[in-house]
Amino acid sequence: MAPGTTPSAAPALQVAHWFNTPAPISLEQLRGRVVVLHAFQMLCPGCVAHGLPQSQRVHELFPADQLAVVGLHTVFEHHAVMGSPAALQAFIHEYRLSFPIGIDEPDGAEGVPLTMQALQLRGTPSLVVLDKQGHMRLHHFGTIDDLRLGALLGRLVAEPLPPTGDRQALAGCDDQGCLLPRPSTGAKID
Amino acid sequence: MAPGTTPSAAPALQVAHWFNTPAPISLEQLRGRVVVLHAFQMLCPGCVAHGLPQSQRVHELFPADQLAVVGLHTVFEHHAVMGSPAALQAFIHEYRLSFPIGIDEPDGAEGVPLTMQALQLRGTPSLVVLDKQGHMRLHHFGTIDDLRLGALLGRLVAEPLPPTGDRQALAGCDDQGCLLPRPSTGAKID
Amino acid sequence: MAPGTTPSAAPALQVAHWFNTPAPISLEQLRGRVVVLHAFQMLCPGCVAHGLPQSQRVHELFPADQLAVVGLHTVFEHHAVMGSPAALQAFIHEYRLSFPIGIDEPDGAEGVPLTMQALQLRGTPSLVVLDKQGHMRLHHFGTIDDLRLGALLGRLVAEPLPPTGDRQALAGCDDQGCLLPRPSTGAKID
Amino acid sequence: MAPGTTPSAAPALQVAHWFNTPAPISLEQLRGRVVVLHAFQMLCPGCVAHGLPQSQRVHELFPADQLAVVGLHTVFEHHAVMGSPAALQAFIHEYRLSFPIGIDEPDGAEGVPLTMQALQLRGTPSLVVLDKQGHMRLHHFGTIDDLRLGALLGRLVAEPLPPTGDRQALAGCDDQGCLLPRPSTGAKID
Q: Can you tell me the distance from the alpha carbon of D16 to that of C30, in angstroms, rounded to the nearest whole number?
């Protein structure tokens, strides 16, 4: 089965601009790791007060080879103010966010951006958590407390990957591109 | 003595654009009331987490005829992102700030704005508190706890105005305009 | 008029045991200062989490000659556990409370203690605030936020004492004892 | 290998009095579940403000068949005040703690109680976390944040039990008593 076609798989990220990463990030690349996808807006008080500091804490707590935090700036209001890369760059700098953050691809000048649409998010802050195989295990709008989130992430990190034979199936091509099979020596998967 | 010439008097506000007020505000207008001047930037974490919610609480706690809260957007960094009225308007809307807020007059494209210069502020958040006669009684950089601020404001609100003869001296003209003598009956000023 | 007979005056403290003070305290002694009376129980979660730390902050913020914080251990439940001076002493030590605290005089083994009855308190935590003349200006059950309390205390501290002629009236005898007239020079009252 | 003899196994609980449980609890009984052992004292501010509310949250978050929270009142100071079951009972009632809590067996009138000695705890609050096989995986003095604790507990809950053959080895007798083999249908283990 090709990646992206499982019913509960997450749709591909559609990002106009990335920060805090030397290269664009795809969810396929992150297979084998738990992924915490945090959708926010820089003028969303609940994101600034709760969601973003929590995502930063998650990023600092878990080893990078076990879990990846990805921020997604899903601008669906005040586009003129929040839509520019310069605005987000200043925000990231002032709030000292160090995990990769992408600007969700706009759908015209005023609409809901494309990844947010594809993920069917209700608003910001939202958290989408993927297990090591890329399946959505949490799809949450609003805040969630640290203990509950920590417990979920700890459990997902501890889940074993499927046997190597099955893991090969994770490789292949879909409309996002082609993925090499993961090397069986898999540097940092645990 | 004309207003504005006392050594400890606050310099006049120089504001490019006002929000949450039907007309521009001058400190002279506010004589007779305690004034809490809060200098902030919308991308300053300490302002967003502490200073602005505190100023909003002060605004809601004290009767408007006793105390006035005035916000001042003193953009001294990230001018391209924060400098526009549209950016601040969206911010004020999302954070539900209801006290008057002015954009400190820029000094060119990248400098420290004019009121911030005149007030000799060190950064944001800053609080400047004026007593009923317009004298600076607090000039504070950083956060200050609610109990201490409440105690200062309660004390200043309780201070009697000088006798009418002296109060007349508050009227007159300076470079900001001309001020009518305060009516001696005026319990509620404005 | 003798102290204690004004309608809004606070009833006298009836205390079985004092801590953090070299001698018993009476409200009469504290005339000329604002008094914050905090009624608590050591097993009351709202007192431990909110009321007592706030009272300690008030004690540390205001000069002792302007304001006095007095704690009152008003045990009206779990008498066997909380009723002993040893229990309260250990509690005061562990929570590092440094303001004077009295054990409200028990009314038998299980009842509501006497000062709590006289003050008509509804429970703990409660705050009773007296102005410099000993009149009750706040009678509050439950928690109260720092800004509001600070504003009230700042205002009361700023209130002038009545002229000396009137102040003499504060002296005299009542059922608590006899009070010397306040010396007219006494800036710092103690 | 008999339970209790592995180097990292926890020593047996020695409890003088239990609350919130119909019968005494032993760690052997809890094999197959993650165990969070929280050592506290009712007059320890860090326990009251942080450790106990956190333990209550853990107790409410995790299913009882996956994780057990056990409180341990390890009185090593103020014995006269905190040492009685009545004092702890009132405390548990007022703070609405619903997980099982035991009074650590005193070592004479003034010493460090026996389980605390055996666990080599440095003070309160302390957290000891055991995995499903009873091995200590955390031995922590002081506070620990919710995200970190949640992540650890989530990971331990997700760890598989050893195969049935090995699990039988968990049964048997040691100096604490004799344990029946766990039924292979194991009602509630996951």
A: 48
CB C52 within 8 A of CB C143: no
Residues 6 or more apart from A23 whose CB is under 8 A from it?
none
The strand pair at D67-73 and D34-40 is best described as parallel
Burial (CB count within 10 angstroms: exposed 0-12, middle 13-18, buried 19+), residue B7: exposed
Rounded distance, CA B14 to CA C139, Å? 44
Decide: A1 and A162 in contact? Cβ < 8 Å: no
Question: In terms of Cα–Cα distance, which of D46, D57, D23 is closest to D146?
Answer: D57
CB contact under 8 A, D147 and A148: no
CA distance C73 to chain D (A): 16
Q: How far is CA A13 from CA A16, A75, A113, A119, in A?
A: 10, 15, 11, 9
Q: Spell out which residues of chain B touch residue C55, defining contact as CB-CB under 8 Å.
A: none
- Distance of residue D109 Cα from the nearest chain C Cα, in angstroms: 16
Side-chain half-sphere exposure of A25, counting CA atoms within 13 A: 21
Which member of C44, C84, C94 has the closest CB to residue D43? C94
Q: Show the DSSP H helices in chain D as ranges.
A: 45-46, 52-61, 79-82, 85-94, 114-119, 146-158, 164-168
The percent of residues in chain B predicted with pLDDT above 90, rounded, is 78
Q: Does residue C125 have a cis peptide bond before it, meaning omega lies within 30 degrees of 0?
A: yes
| ipTM of the complex as predicted | 0.82
d(CA D129, CA D131) in angstroms, rounded, equals: 7
**Residue (of D4, D7, D11) closest to D118 by Cα position:** D11
Q: In this structure, what token pair is assigned to residue A143? A: 């805040």
**pLDDT tens readout for residues D102-122:** 999 999 888 999 999 999 999
Report pTM: 0.84
pLDDT at A107 exceeding the cut of 90? yes
Contact C94 D49 (CB under 8 A): no
Is the separation of the CB atoms in C164 and C184 below 8 Å? yes
- How far are the Cα atoms of A142, C40, C59, C98, C125 from residue C142, in angstroms, in the given order? 30, 10, 19, 22, 5
Contacts of A87 in chain B (CB under 8 A): 81, 87
* Nearest in space to B107 (alpha carbons), one of B118, B97, B95: B118
Chain C positions in Cβ-Cβ contact with residue D82 (cut-off 8 Å): 90
B61-82: per-residue pLDDT in tens?
999 999 999 999 999 999 999 9
Q: How far is CA A15 from the centre of its chain?
A: 11
